[in-house]
Amino acid sequence: MHKFITKYWMVILAGVLLSTSGLLALLWPKKKASDKVLDDVDENDSDLESVDARVIADALWLEFDGLGGSSGSKINKLLKGLSLADFKKVSEQFGTKYRDDILGGEGGWLFGNKKRDLIYWLGAELSDSEKMELRKINPNIPI
Ligand SMILES: [Ca+2]
């Protein structure tokens, strides 16, 4: 038995870690899915014209679509001053787009990736420090 443990301790440890993390994932309280955050927001509370929401959504897409991450300062400029209702309008104009999470741009449909909404794209394109910066500049943005 002792020999067995010394020989396979890494395998045993990995097994224990895996089953523990699996159990934790099951028991952990579920965070509200990012695509549900805007469900209760009424876009009629927004004064942003649909055409302006469209312009912002298009500019965000232009920034996102490039390979790798986005420039946080450009994203911040686009989202500055938006209310949550404004953001919902922009998000609706943005719609959902395939993201290749390896290359960081549009794509990945070959690998069965899902179409992603604006909140997902923001989370994936910005680094942790850029997200912090965005939250500081506009705490309404739900990322
Ligand atoms: Ca990108």
UniProtKB/TrEMBL annotation:
Keywords: Membrane, Transmembrane, Transmembrane helix. It comes from the Bacteria. The chain crosses the membrane at residues 6-28. This is Annexin. It comes from Flagellimonas algicola.
